[in-house]
Amino acid sequence: MVVRFNCNEGFTRVGSESAQCYHFGWSPQPPICKENVKPCPALPIISHGRVTGESKAVFQHGDLLEVHCEISFALYGSKIIECVDGEWAPLPSCVEEVRTCRPPPTIKNGYFVNGESSTYRHGDTVEYRCQKIYIIIGTNPAKCLHGQWEIPSCVVNQQSCTRPWYADFQPTVQTTKPFKTDQFANYRCGSNLHQTKCINGLWFPVPRCEGMVCMLCTSL
After folding, report:
1. Which of 70, 123, 178, 186 is 20 to 30 A from residue 49's alpha carbon, by CA?
2. Helices (H), the chain
3. Domain Sushi: where (predicted)?
4. SS3 state of residue 192
5. Class assignment of domain 38-96?
6. Is the peptide bond before 31 cis (omega within 30 degrees of 0)?
7. Which whole-number Å values give the CA distances from 95 to 5, 11, 49, 57, 130, in the listed order?
8. What CA–CA distances, in Å, run from 1 to 29, 111, 117, 149, 182?
9. Which of 186, 191, 190, 188 is nearest to 173 (CA)?
10. DSSP letter string over 111-155?
């Protein structure tokens, strides 16, 4: 069971807008409603990482930023962080990834255009292109992740995406209209924000929140 929270007029929610009941209780923890919330005065410092987003002297409660790791470092945690009552959360970390990738593979009806190295580090990219009448779907440029290539494919026709109605999928875009190819949608898993892209009728990456079925709930 998923419960959503709203604050009375004049108060601001601090914490997740929803919580789900699991066998161990509610996750994430229910939010609180505060009359005054603090801004975030500076960008967070993440070792071997960088933060991107709108440049501001002061960030307000609810502002979002995106975290990227340096080449050879893997992101552990949420890619999107939020200013929550004066603090950035949840802060991820960038951990060195020693596994490397071999030269990128060939794909049906397509080819890569800038793969000249014999070894690729975590985070390195290679661009793919499709032959005529085909369009590319999936991750492009392809990316070396944890020693494996995340590669696209080439297909003929384009299709739109329908809004997923998974029980654990709570999108921030409230619409019943189909999503067009190359259109992005943000969705929330507990307190973490994620992004997915409509490509030829399919979502990449597949929007999914990992969780367990509720067996016993504690009271709010």
Report:
1. 186
2. none
3. 1-35, 38-96, 99-156
4. strand
5. mainly beta
6. no
7. 34, 38, 9, 29, 34
8. 14, 46, 50, 37, 32
9. 186
10. EESS---S-B-TT-EE-EEE-TT-EEES-SSEEEETTEEE--EEE
d(CA 185, CA 97): 29
Instruction: Give tens-digit pLDDT for 37-96.
Output: 999 988 888 999 999 988 888 999 989 999 999 999 999 999 999 999 999 988 999 999
Q: Which fold has domain 110-156?
A: Complement Module; domain 1 (2.10.70)
Rounded CA separation 190/106 (Å): 38
Q: Determine the Cα–Cα distance for residues 55 and 59; give it in Å rounded to an integer.
A: 9
> Global pTM?
0.58
Burial of 77 (C-beta count, 10 Å sphere; 0-12/13-18/19+): middle
Q: What are the residue boundaries of the structural domains of the chain, listed by start?
A: 1-36, 38-96, 110-156, 160-204
